[in-house]
Amino acid sequence: MNYLKLVFLVLFVIPSVVVGQKVVNSNFLGNWANSGTGAWEYGFYEDGAVACSDFWKYKRVEFGKKRMEVVLENGNQTIALKIKQGKNGNIFIARDGAKAEEFRPCNGKNFVAWVGVDTVSFSRPLVITDTVTIRGYIRNLDKVTHPALRGYTFTCSYNGLLGEDGGEIVAPIDSSGRFTLHFTVSAPQRVILEWGRMWKNIIVEPGETVLLYADASDWKTVPNVSKEEMINGKKDVLFMGKNARFHQEYTCFPYPLWMRDMYELREIARSDMEFLRLAEADYLKSVACFDSICGKYPNFSKRCREAIENEWKYYFAATLMQNRFNLGRRQRFEPEYMEYVNAHFSVNEPLCYFITQRYSTFLRDYTGYVDHQKFRYIEGMGMAYIPDDRFYEALRRLKEGGRFEELTTEDIATCENINRKILDLSRQQIADTNAFQAVIAGNSMLYGKLNAYRSIPEVREQEEVITREYELLLYDTLVSDLLLKELCYAQLFMTGMEYDHKPLLPGMMKLADARISNPILNRKVKETSAVYQKIASKKLAYEASLIDVGQFSHISDADSLWQALIEPYRGNVILLDFWGSWCEPCKNMLALMGDIEKVFENEKVVFMYFAYSSPEEAWKNVIKEFDLTGKNIVHYNLPPLQQQMIIEKMRVRGYPTYKIIDKAGNVTSRVLEYPLRPQSVINEIKAELERE
Fold first, then answer.
1. Three-class DSSP category at 516
2. Peptide bond into 223 cis (omega under 30)
3. Measuring CA to CA, how many Å separate 392 from each of 73, 174, 201, 418, 504?
4. Domains of the chain by residue range
5. How far apart are CA 512 and CA 508, in angstroms?
6. How far apart are CA 407 and CA 394, in angstroms?
7. Could you tell me if 532 and 501 are in contact, meaning their C-beta atoms sit under 8 angstroms apart?
8. What integer pLDDT is reported at residue 433 of this predicted model?
9. pLDDT tens digits for 71-112?
């Protein structure tokens, strides 16, 4: 009898103590939110726990009837927890000897409002640069069976600070479903988190640490579910960290798939105002959805309201301004259209630049629309702009600085006046050469003498600086917020470098320093300039690829020119690429060509590139950047008139354009469309090589 009592005590009274235990009491497994705040603070799983935005191991587990004591370990840190069951499935947790708090089970599928009011504002942008850390735990990853979902990687992508290509960080997910990644930001930054067939948009701030929980059981694919269900269907996703409330609230909103884009609306709208009203109806539907959710959960945080309201508002605004690309020769919207835009939206919302996806698009297209008013339709040319000549202003500044003492101020003024009259005749589309000769009469030698200064590098540099000053005036006029204005300035310098594909020269760098006082933006511009300086300093691996086009200068008809260009390469299959140094899609495709060229480096294949409207320096720098030289590579940068002859002969309608020439020099019917798929290009070239 005594023996049986002893056995009973051992089995049912003495608590269990297990060191390195992997399985905790099943009553305590899962995620737990603080009942007093609504914050997810703990997660207990079979092989570990999460707390304080980090992963923890079970160092010691002791459990008995309706209770458990756990020591969690992370490196040199430990957390001691005393846990006991409460009523209605809740539990009480006391941490490191503190008073116990009540916790309830939490599931990200069903949104539960947080307790209390959150009036925290977003941090000030572009004050500091700091690291963001995202840790994650994907539960039930081992149960995923669909091949498309077994990539076991987590991707975080975000736009560049100044609209340039942003970053994409891919972190491997380990066998237990955990991952960690780091990246730096200088402002509240909208990022896209992707894993499997799930994705979430969140807004992170410099220095923030986010812990993400997701259940892989929720991963769904089309056609098993609809696109709507795949995107907006309920999923068990939770966030931990100082901004967890904002992240949880922000990600609970369904994405407004009913908001049509510019392409969809232009197919049905018959006027500017009908386009506006259709877009407005979509936006108001989103507002009604937002108001309905806010009515149900009135304690939404200030940041959540601000982010959602502006995200949808400036999606609408960007759609309205993108409609400018449908104007054609009309050039201007109906007056009521821009009156509506000016009354409802602002180009002075710096925070929206960072926390919304489309504000920068709206700002770009709004300022672009205003700037485009200096263009006008010219028959046979389309929309064209004949700018004022900055050459004489450049001469005047350089003379004031002590250069060109041989020139008088009166000579510069005389030639500037002549040039202004010539530009006026050009804008009026006057074709009579006598009219131009009459303007120059009596001053032809002086006019020719000064024009010779156009080729001097320091004059060209000064012209570029003056032109950029006039471009900056657009933002001085439209944008009053200093931070947003400097963002626009920096973006203009960045896009200018990308367009010209060269670094900032000293005069332009001095202008950038004078206009951009924010150290983060200023540094970004200088870092980009350094990248282009490095490209410009590279040596061409095979200079013979760049053909001296002076040998063709005597040819004045398209057919003869074309034959002269391809004659040395007859007997080869030729891939033609018509591109421009200013053309972003062209350069995106050039980045792919190197690997394609290597496939055929020992074959009778020639890659022939025709640059269009590309200054020589920019042309060479693009070739250097992508290492596009070799024995089977040919580059032509013809004079403008000859460029146009070839463009018209080959019926080039846009850039980039690709064609395949057979061994006899004939244009084939093989189609290579943008965007290029490398394997398709390889297959088409091989097929032409094998053709008899």
1. coil
2. yes
3. 73, 65, 52, 11, 22
4. 15-105, 130-250, 262-378, 386-455, 543-690
5. 6
6. 13
7. yes
8. 73
9. 999 999 999 999 999 999 999 999 999 999 999 999 888 777
Sign of CA dihedral 513, 515, 517, 522: negative
Q: What is the pLDDT of residue 378?
A: 44
Distance from the first to the final alpha carbon of the chain: 101
Count CB-CB contacts under 10 A for residue 120: 12
By CB atoms closer than 10 A (0-12, 13-18, 19+), residue 429 is: exposed
What pLDDT shows up at residue 113? 81
DSSP SS3 for 226: coil
Residues contacting residue 144 through CB under 8 Å, at least 6 positions apart: 150, 196, 216, 219
Q: In this model, does residue 535 exceed pLDDT 50?
A: yes
Q: What is the pTM of this model?
A: 0.81
10 Å CB burial of residue 448 (0-12, 13-18, 19+) is exposed
Measured CA to CA, the distance from residue 281 to residue 320 in angstroms comes to 12
Q: Which of 18-22, 440-444, 680-684 has the lowest mean pLDDT?
A: 18-22
Report residue 217's pLDDT band, with 50, 70 and 90 as the boundaries. confident
Please report the pLDDT score of residue 381 as a whole number.
42
Can you tell me which residue has the tokens 């320091």? 458
Grouping H, G, I as helix, E, B as strand and the rest as coil, residue 385 is: coil
**Can you give the pLDDT at residue 440?**
81
Q: What is the mean pLDDT of residues 643-649?
A: 93
Q: Which residues lie closer than 8 Å to 14 by C-beta, 6 or more apart?
A: none
* Cα 437 off chain centre by: 50
Q: Sort strands 130-139 and 209-215 into parallel, antiparallel or unpaired.
A: parallel
Nearest one of 656, 604, 609, 605 to 629, comparing CA atoms: 609
> Which residue's structure tokens are 């009579």?
432
Q: To which residue do tokens 């511009």 refer?
A: 525
Please tell me the number of Cα atoms within 13 Å of 427 on its side-chain side. Answer: 14
Instruction: Look at residues 657, 688, 661, 660 and name the one whose alpha carbon lies nearest to residue 675.
Output: 657
Q: Which two tokens stand for residue 515?
A: 């206009």
What tokens does 521 get? 């933006």
Identify the architecture of domain 543-690 in CATH.
Answer: 3-Layer(aba) Sandwich (3.40)
Q: How far apart are CA 586 and CA 498, in angstroms?
A: 13
Q: Average pLDDT, stretch 453-463?
A: 91
CA dist 377 and 328 (Å) reads: 9
Domain 130-250, second-level architecture:
Sandwich (2.60)
Q: Is residue 589's pLDDT more than 80? A: yes
Neighbours of 19 (CB within 10 A): 10
Q: What is the mean pLDDT of the chain?
A: 87
What backbone torsions phi and psi does residue 662 show, to the nearest 5 degrees? -80, 180
Identical fold between 130-250 and 543-690: no
pLDDT of residue 148: 59
What's the DSSP call for residue 667? B
Q: How far is the C-alpha of 571 from the C-alpha of 402, rounded, in Å?
A: 59
Using DSSP's 3-state secondary structure scheme, residue 408 falls into: coil
Rounded CA-CA distance 329/475 in Å is 25
